[in-house]
Specification:
Blueprint lengths: L1 H37 L8 H5 L12 E5 L2 E5 L2 H8 L3 H12 L4 H8 L3 H23 L3
Helix pairs in contact: 3-6, 4-6, 5-6
């Protein structure tokens, strides 16, 4: 009877182990199926989808900021920022207000208490100064 009893216990244990392994295998297959449904290979992504997956860090050291009236304007392109810095304060203000804040000459003139023709004159001279600066230093960068 002990041999039969031991054999029965062995068969029950064997059956139990097989059941545990079968259930574990089902759990693993189910988890793999969930992962495959949730995740996509990077190779399967379109360029538009890939572009959403990265970002660029911008550090203050790479930008130059200008303060005009109540506005803070950050220029990310170093050469452009250096060219603007080479201008007089009045020309800087006019260029930044005109091209970075899209203000009209009339609005700039009202804000700076100048005539519209004076704003236009300073803007034209500033653009010429920027052009010369960029031509001179563009080859060095």
């Amino acid at each position: 009877m002990t041999d039969n009893y031991e054999e029965t216990i062995e068969h029950q244990f064997d059956s139990f182990c097989k059941t545990v392994l079968r259930n574990q295998a089902r759990n693993i297959y189910e988890e793999n199926r969930r992962w495959q449904n949730r995740f996509i290979s990077l190779e399967a992504l379109t360029p538009a989808d890939l572009s959403k997956l990265y970002s660029f860090d911008n550090y203050k050291a790479e930008n130059i900021s200008f303060s005009i009236f109540e506005f803070d304007i950050t220029v990310e392109e170093l050469l452009v920022a250096q060219a603007i810095e080479s201008l007089s304060k009045k020309q800087q203000d006019i260029i930044l207000l005109s091209f970075f804040l899209d203000m009209k000459d009339v609005d700039i003139a009202n804000m700076m208490s100048l005539a519209k023709s004076t704003v236009h004159y300073h803007k034209e001279n500033a653009l010429e100064g920027l052009r010369k600066f960029m031509e001179e230093y563009a080859d060095e960068k």
